[in-house]
Amino acid sequence: MCRRGLLFAALLCVTIVLLPAGSAVARPADLTTTEVSFVGAGGVELHGTLVAPPSRGTTELHPGLVMLPGAGPGERAELRTAAEAYARHGVVTLIYDKRTTGYSMVHRDYSVLADDALAAFRLLQKRPDVDRGKVGLWGLSEGAWSASLAASRSADVAFLITAGAVGLTPARQQAWAYGEFLRHHRVSGSLTDTMQDTATRQLVGAGLFPEADYNPVPAWERVHQPVLALWGVLDHEAAPAESAQIIRKALARGGNTHYTIRFVPAVRHNLNLSEDDGFDRPSALPADYADFESSWIQRLSDGGGLPPVSVGPAPQQDRLSQALAPLAWYESPWLQLVAISLFVVGFAGYPLVGAVRKLRGDRHPAPLGWSARWLAGAGLAASVGTLGYLLFCVITAANIIGPVLLGRTVPWLALQGLAVAAVVAAVCTAVTWRRSRPVLSRSERARLGLLLTAGAVFVPWAVQWGLLLP
User: Fold this and answer.
1) Nearest to residue 177, comparing CAs of 229, 232, 105, 240?
2) Which of 124, 146, 150, 188 is within CB 3.0–4.6 Å of 407 for a Cys-Cys bond?
3) Residue 379 in contact with residue 458, Cβ under 8 Å?
4) How buried is residue 418: exposed, middle or buried, by Cβ count under 10 Å (0-12/13-18/19+)?
5) Domain ranges of the chain
6) Residues contacting 227, CB < 8 A, separation 6+
7) Where are the transmembrane segments (predicted)?
8) Does residue 262 contact residue 337 with C-beta atoms inside 8 Å?
């Protein structure tokens, strides 16, 4: 989930560049909107929009709702349509831009985001048209982690609504989601294992997966307010059946008996409609969006009983998530960095030294011929290309992976072919080097020794990353 931050950031930058100066979101004629600002955790100023039912000159008080977006930059526009749907059902709704200070692709703190949510909550409570005793929180995906944490900290929060909440740690959830999207694209074999295991664990070990081990269960155990937890039946990101069970059990252990679990048909992770079994990313909401939720809020306002209940059949989750093992010593980020550095120096250095020699007028051909050149080229392309391709898959949440052939993506097949070529070339180079060693100069032996060392290290590295596995 956090795992798409770079993509969201890139799209945000493009949007800012292309958006005309002074443009604004159109205000719906049937609602009233108010621009607001408030101070979040650490003194950071945050900006938002209040969307409310039209004023009819009465003293009627409405319930209130603060909405928290999912992972990524989290501009308020992402939730604008949903907020308007709630407002049309009589709920004054506050949406706000997520902080940029202390939140990035590689750093975030759900505790800080929870404090931001409570600051927004207090602002909404002060509205003259809001019943301060009937203000709740709403959180989507990553926002559900922060919203549940905020609700556990303040008894003033009247209720909690979540969409696509995850009961797993972020790293475990993201690894599961990689598998869902890759299998949807009919990918099998080593790329799936690499994305779900090696790549995810390396990101965690390198500190590039923020809040990777955050455990949401203790916060849910401390949530005593009425809870409405929603999951799309077509959710392939939150491990919905598994997460629903975890959250249900956590609420029960904490003594909370006022919760509703609802599985919404025909919608994906963010409760938007889907035309591809939940694997596409449309922005359209169902026509009845917020009907059930506003009715549920109204029952709270009327003092109706809310015994534990489950609405709709749970999604079919074919595969359970798997716990991620800690990195072994030979998988440490530092050794990975050493290996990549060796590949760059050893593989790239061989042709570079040759080019320099030619510029100096040395026209003597290299005694090892084609095999050394193949090792240098294929080894460098396979190692650097693998890291680049896997990083791209991480940024796009394994949703943009390239064409698929014989159960493998074409880029992955190409990388595997390069890896095999590098291994074959390494063997041929080693054999030729042994035969030609007596006639090699000292500098040439050093040059080839570095190349062969890089080739020897490349073999176990390629096995670890799945390049030499089926």
Assistant:
1) 240
2) 188
3) yes
4) buried
5) 2-169+214-311, 329-464
6) 159, 160, 161, 162, 251, 256, 258, 259, 260
7) 334-353, 374-401, 413-433, 445-463
8) no
Average pLDDT over residues 158-187: 96
Crossing angle for the helix pair 110-125 and 142-153, nearest 10 degrees? 60
391: number of Cβ within 10 Å: 14
CB 3 within 8 A of CB 174: yes
SS3 272: coil
CA distance 113 to 242: 25
CA nearest neighbour of 39 among 132, 115, 148: 115
Yes or no: say if 394 and 199 are a contact pair by the CB < 8 Å rule.
yes
- What are the pLDDT digits (tens) for 300-324? 877 766 677 878 788 878 899 999 9
Structure tokens at 155: 């008894």
How many CB atoms are located within 10 Å of the residue 60 CB?
Answer: 11
**Model pLDDT, residue 58:** 66
Count of residues making up the chain: 470
Q: How far apart are alpha carbons 108 and 115 in whole angstroms? A: 13
pLDDT tens, position by position, 360-399: 666 555 556 788 899 999 999 999 999 999 999 999 999 9
Q: Which tokens belong to 310?
A: 């489950």
Read off the DSSP letter of residue 415. Answer: H
Q: The pTM is what?
A: 0.88
